[in-house]
Design goal:
By secondary structure, this protein is α+β, with helices and mostly antiparallel strands. Helices cover about 35% and strands about 25% of the residues. A hairpin with a 2-residue loop joins strand 1 and strand 2.
Length: about 250
């Protein structure tokens, strides 16, 4: 499958220079794990109203332009990181309704908000899978997160007397489960309910969190370690942005 970046540049050579202004940052998540983000508003402007129907896979055709843009942004992030790996000529592929399929030897994860797409990848043999998630801290969503995503133990333990607001803590736990479950999916291949895991530890000094299974079984025998960060009034976004990542070894 051809790289989307190459398809876009082939039909519009100047797109390469407009795209260079869309990247937000490139950074190490952990040893041998690198990440990059792209501003979707700038990407939309760089596309110059191009019809994405000729670029994205056919089963994306019925999606809204906004959804197509987020998928394109995530895939461009992945291709940028793969370009620096041993799979520089490869790209990711998709099956409808399934997570992205990465080149052999590569583990990756993609996430996005309305404004930003973000990807992390690794070719380390010591990492089995990984997951990443980014979320705005939006008070409008807090009660829904508490109701549907947090166990009673988490509510009692973590929503009071913490250095972060209740809105931020609830969003952090939600995001941690999103990234943790993405990392778990390749090994169990099934949907995971938010209340099958709960937060057993949060350390704000080391920006780390641990998710533990409520009931240990053949699918869930170990806890998941999460790294997190928060950006207040993050660039290119509407407000505070939480990023979480999970690495399973």
């Amino acid at each position: 499958m051809p790289r989307l970046t190459d398809l876009l540049i082939k039909s519009d050579p100047v797109f390469k220079y407009r795209l260079s202004d869309c990247w937000i940052k490139r950074h190490l998540i952990a040893p041998e794990v690198v990440g990059i983000s792209i501003c979707l508003k700038k990407l939309d402007n760089a596309l110059l109203d191009r019809n994405l129907i000729h670029v994205l896979p056919s089963y994306f055709n019925n999606l809204t332009h906004k959804r197509k843009l987020t998928l394109l942004g995530g895939r461009l992030c992945a291709e940028s990181l793969l370009l620096d790996s041993e799979c520089s000529g490869d790209t990711i592929s998709y099956l409808e309704g399934k997570p992205p399929i990465w080149p052999r030897g590569i583990k990756g994860s993609i996430t996005h908000t309305d404004d930003v797409a973000h990807c992390i990848v690794t070719n380390s043999n010591s990492i089995k899978s990984l997951g990443v998630d980014i979320e705005y801290v939006n008070p409008v969503n807090t009660q829904k997160i508490i109701t549907y995503c947090l166990t009673q133990t988490e509510i009692d333990k973590w929503l009071n007397d913490q250095p972060w607001t209740i809105d931020a803590i609830a969003t952090l736990i939600f995001s941690a489960k999103e990234s943790g479950f993405k990392a778990l999916y390749p090994s169990i291949l099934r949907f995971i309910d938010f209340k099958e895991f709960q937060t057993s530890m949060i350390c704000f000094e080391t920006n780390s969190l641990v998710l533990s299974p409520v009931h240990r079984n053949q699918d869930f025998s170990q806890s998941i370690k999460i790294k997190f960060s928060i950006e207040h009034k993050a660039p290119h976004t509407l407000g505070s942005l939480i990023t979480t990542s999970a690495l399973l070894q």
